[in-house]
Amino acid sequence: MAFNINDFTTELSKNGLAKTSNFKVVMSGDPLKDIFPDAGRDFSFRIESVDFPGRSIPSLDYKDYGAPYKIGGLANYIEITFVIICSSDLREREFFMRWQDLITGNHRQGKKRDFDIGYYDEYVCKKGFEISQYDDIGNETYKISLIDSYPTLIGALSGSWATTDIQKMTVTMSYRYFEEKSIPSLPSSSSNRIPKLPKVNLPTKFPDIDIASKVPFPKLPKIPQIPKVNLPRIENAKNEISKVKNVFNR
Fold first, then answer.
1. 150-154/168-174 β-pairing
2. Where are the domains of the chain?
3. Residues 44-50: what's their mean pLDDT?
4. Which residues face 149 on adjacent strands?
5. 109-128: pLDDT as tens digits
6. Assessment of whether the complete model's pTM goes beyond 0.85
7. Contacts for 91-98 with beta carbons within 8 Å, 24 or more apart?
8. Which 3 state secondary structure label does DSSP give 66?
9. Going by CATH, does the domain composed of 19-182 fall within 2.30.110?
10. Which of 126, 102, 120 is nearest to 178 (CA)?
């Protein structure tokens, strides 16, 4: 079948696209709450990039007759790496260093003989390291939880007078396995539109209504008539007054 560009664009608009910037990392639970109670909330806004976990399955050759069978073996869960933006007091480095102290002992802070290896259940994060994917309108669509995770590598920080770049630290996490959960999302933005309202058939002509006969109006009072003024009499009075004035002026 020939390639149809309309089918391609329809598929993309129907199911949307996952973007690398739409993610969030949350860390919580034991033993993190004892190291830094607010780490999960604060660090979520500072992790600028993260690897979604992957796994590989080795194949084992099984020979019976003819060509050997490729039999799948135990899954290998690949470590993940993320980059975190550091605060001015480097609390992010201190947090992960304290987490590693639960594994290697607390000789980092001057206790020279404290090289005792910690117990597994005391330093792993059971299910509190979560990576979430979001769509363009902020709905969580996918969540991955690392089981029994802990930091195996804390990257070195570098200083230089030549630049004023922001300090960023690389951390590698190991884990036993991961659990995934697909979260149904709302329709994509292209199809998430307000449905059209049904059409309403209105009459083209409306019946004539005699409003005056239906609605009673109050009767207004009659305006009184202004009395008429006899102008010739006023003019004769003015003339008589003028004659009197002339007599006295002589």
1. antiparallel
2. 19-182
3. 94
4. 125
5. 876 778 889 999 999 999 88
6. no
7. 91/36, 92/43, 92/46, 92/169, 93/154, 93/157, 93/169, 95/35, 95/36, 95/39, 95/43, 96/151, 96/154, 96/169, 96/171, 97/154, 98/35, 98/36
8. coil
9. yes
10. 126
